[in-house]
UniProtKB/TrEMBL annotation:
Pfam families in the record: BPD_transp_1
Cross-referenced Gene3D superfamilies: MetI-like (1.10.3720.10)
CDD domains assigned: TM_PBP2
Main localization (coarse): membrane
GO cellular component, one term: plasma membrane
Membrane topology, from the record: Multi-pass membrane protein
Cell location: Cell membrane
Protein name (database record): ABC transporter permease subunit
Length: 272
């Protein structure tokens, strides 16, 4: 009887997992199928591959300055990710390694700021960027994301598992604090950096609202804005939109699969 109950439980679990996997994968499947069909077929709900892939790709590349758009997207996402990891990991390292009677109060104040919605910050942030003459520049997109409170929190929590004996041994060997951070802390915490890289890169790559406000010329727009713009036409070509969505999705998939093992280790708090 107990074996039958266990079998039923496992069967129900697998069925739920299959359903969850189908729900997760179906949008990507629909996007791939839609890229091969005409707009009329997509509207009709055609779920089979068509023969319009090449025409959709030609229309997409003729309507979009793809090299410039890709450069904007990769520069903002890549450089922004590198800066966020550097600044936020330094802050997380400092909060955990250096003790002060004000440390927890300052950290608690930072966490409290997570409750402030970005919509409440948009207007003052835009005014600040306008006063600094940074509207329609890369700096206006990258600078507000450099000090990520969530990533600071994430690195501080991960740093709790960092062996303090390594830091003490490095100090005995004569290393300064910045050398300990670069040559001891960063290699040991590489799984945490990998997980944070995926999180930050995806956030920067998919960032839509703030770039929409700050980037005011077509030459500065990112791929996310361009794909969204394709749907705003009076009669959007959904086949072209699906091609753009595929190009917008591929970089995040590549980053995730390259760092997948490290991502799991980093989320589990692995320190090596």
């Amino acid at each position: 009887m107990s074996n039958q109950i266990a079998l039923i439980g496992r069967t129900a679990t697998y069925l739920l997992l299959v359903l969850a996997a189908f729900i997760s994968v179906f949008p990507f499947f629909w996007m791939m199928i839609g890229a091969t069909n005409t707009s009329a077929d997509i509207i009709k709900g055609r779920a089979l591959p068509g023969g319009a892939l090449w025409a959709n790709m030609v229309n997409f590349f003729t309507s979009v300055d793809m090299p410039r758009i890709l450069f904007n997207s990769f520069f903002i996402a890549g450089f922004g990710t590198a800066m966020t990891l550097l600044v936020s990991s330094l802050a997380g390292y400092g909060f955990e390694m250096f003790r002060s009677r004000f440390r927890e109060k300052i950290f608690g104040s930072l966490l409290l700021m997570l409750s402030i919605p970005f919509a409440a910050l948009m207007v003052p942030l835009f005014i600040m960027m306008a006063n600094l003459k940074m509207i329609n520049t890369y700096q206006a997109i990258i600078l507000p994301t450099v000090a990520s409170i969530f990533i600071v929190f994430y690195f501080r929590q991960a740093t709790k598992a960092f062996p303090h004996e390594l830091r003490d041994a490095a100090r005995i060997d004569g290393l300064k604090e910045w050398q300990i951070f670069l040559f001891v802390y960063m290699p040991v915490m590489r799984s945490t950096y990998a997980a944070a890289t995926i999180i930050v890169f995806m956030a920067n790559w998919n960032n839509y609202l703030w770039p929409l406000i700050v980037l005011q010329t077509n030459e500065m727009k990112t791929l996310t804005l361009v794909v969204a713009g394709l749907t705003s036409a009076y009669t959007p070509d959904f086949g072209v939109v699906m091609v753009g969505a595929i190009f917008a999705t591929l970089p995040t998939l590549v980053i995730f699969f390259l760092l997948q093992r490290r991502f799991v280790e980093g989320m589990l708090g692995a320190v090596k």
